[in-house]
Every structure is written in C-alpha cells, then in structure tokens.
C-alpha cells in the first residue's frame, strides 16, 4: 500500500462532493504517513518533518485537518470535512471544501493532470497510468493565518 499515491486515489477521494466521508477518512488514517512519495522512502521515517511534508495529503489539505485525522481518527475527520469550524485547532468551511478543494481538485487540476489518459484508457484498457504529482491546492482563507504548534 506504500504506492497507493501513484494511482491518484487521494485526488479522486478528495474530489468526492458527498458528505459520507467516513470510508475515505478510514483509508486516509491507514495511509496518512505510509506513502513512499519521498523518493521511495516511507514518510513515517522522517518524523522530524511537519505532518504536511510527511503525508501525500499535505499539498491537498490544510495541516490542521491532517492533525484532526491523526489525533481524533476518521470519524472526527469526516465530520470536520463537512462542517464549518473557526477554532484555534481548525479553520475550515463548507465553502473552502466546495470552492477550493473540490473545484480545484476535480474540475481543474485532475482533468488537466490526467491529460489524454482517459482517452487512451478507453482505447486500450491495459495502458499504464504515469503518476505525476499535482500542484498544491491553495486556500485563500488561510493566507493570513499563522499555523504554529498545531494551532492557528
């Protein structure tokens, strides 16, 4: 499971617009820091790095949501993803998810990222997907916020 990131499963999971995110949270809990996207090494070995740098989700979600997942588990993560929060531990709104994460991840970045792969796949079902990381998702709402020791 160390190479799950190379399937782009994380991108597609985060592009899901629904509210039943418990299964996605469970998947993310198991794989949070166990992806070999850092030159083939497991990110868990780099415990000195911030969580956002150790996780493939670091470029997709604010670090505060990663800590909700790590500390409180998949149910709390799923609840946080669909709620509005403005606390020292987490700043996240439905608007941030809809406009920044889902729109950027699904409508813009994934489609650009995949390029002509869907067309190739429809012509030849055994074509291999060539993984390339997407640019990070930007959250303008967090631009002026300082994240320090797990608090804003």
Automatic annotation (TrEMBL):
InterPro entries reported in the protein's UniProt record: GRV2/DNAJC13
GO biological process, one term: regulation of early endosome to late endosome transport
Any one of the GO CC terms: endosome membrane
Superkingdom as given in the UniProt entry: Eukaryota
Name used for this protein in its record: DnaJ homolog subfamily C GRV2 isoform X1
Organism: Arachis duranensis (Wild peanut)
Gene: LOC110277414
């Amino acid at each position: 499971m160390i190479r799950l990131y190379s399937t782009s499963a994380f991108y597609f999971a985060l592009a899901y617009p629904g509210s039943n995110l418990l299964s996605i949270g469970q998947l993310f809990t198991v794989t949070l820091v166990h992806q070999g996207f850092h030159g083939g090494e497991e990110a868990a070995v780099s415990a000195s790095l911030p969580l956002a740098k150790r996780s493939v989700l670091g470029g997709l979600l604010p670090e505060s949501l990663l800590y909700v997942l790590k500390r409180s588990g998949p149910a709390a993560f799923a609840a946080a993803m669909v709620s509005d929060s403005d606390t020292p531990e987490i700043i996240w709104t439905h608007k941030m998810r809809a406009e920044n994460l889902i729109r950027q991840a699904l409508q813009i970045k994934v489609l650009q990222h995949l390029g002509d792969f869907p067309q190739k796949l429809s012509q030849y079902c055994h074509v291999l997907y060539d993984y390339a990381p997407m640019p990070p998702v930007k959250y303008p709402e967090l631009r002026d916020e300082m994240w320090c020791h797990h608090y804003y």
